[in-house]
Amino acid sequence: MSEVSIEQIRPELTWRLRQRVLYPESKLYEMEMEEDNHGYHFAAFKDNNIIAVISLFDKGTDWQFRKFAVDETMQNMGIGRLVLQHITDFATTNGGTRLWCNARLSAINFYLKAGFSHTGNLFSKNGFDYEILEKPLTPAQETE
Fold first, then answer.
1. What is the reported pTM?
2. Of 119, 120, 115, 121, nearest to 137 (Cα)?
3. Which of 5, 40, 51, 138 is the most exposed place for a label (fewest CB within 10 A)?
4. End-to-end Cα separation, the chain, in angstroms
5. Consecutive 10-residue runs of the chain (144 residues): their mean pLDDT?
6. 106 vs 109: CA distance, rounded Å
């Protein structure tokens, strides 16, 4: 497999993959969230194509990620794991002590393998069932 790189991107660059993978019944314009203007957005690139996207939001020492999508043809190849590690490092470097998400029930095992834990907080929204999962982060140490 050729090289995969992860870069910070503008929020609107997440919308097409977000729509195709997570909300195929929705319109592209429905992918924009008000919060997009207050977050960090990342994409994994392979051969100059976006193959994964994620949005990360700073809530003090808590960091939430949302709208995590990996192209269907690129799933189960470790790309999601790379993206998740990238945002974990980003949150840690920026003072985060907890990373959390609203995980679709179908994705929970992926997150558990990445060190996330159940919170027992379950809910349904827009026809999907979720559980809030969390992972404690070790704050970055200052070096002299």
1. 0.90
2. 115
3. 138
4. 39
5. 87 93 87 88 96 95 95 94 96 95 94 95 92 88 53
6. 8
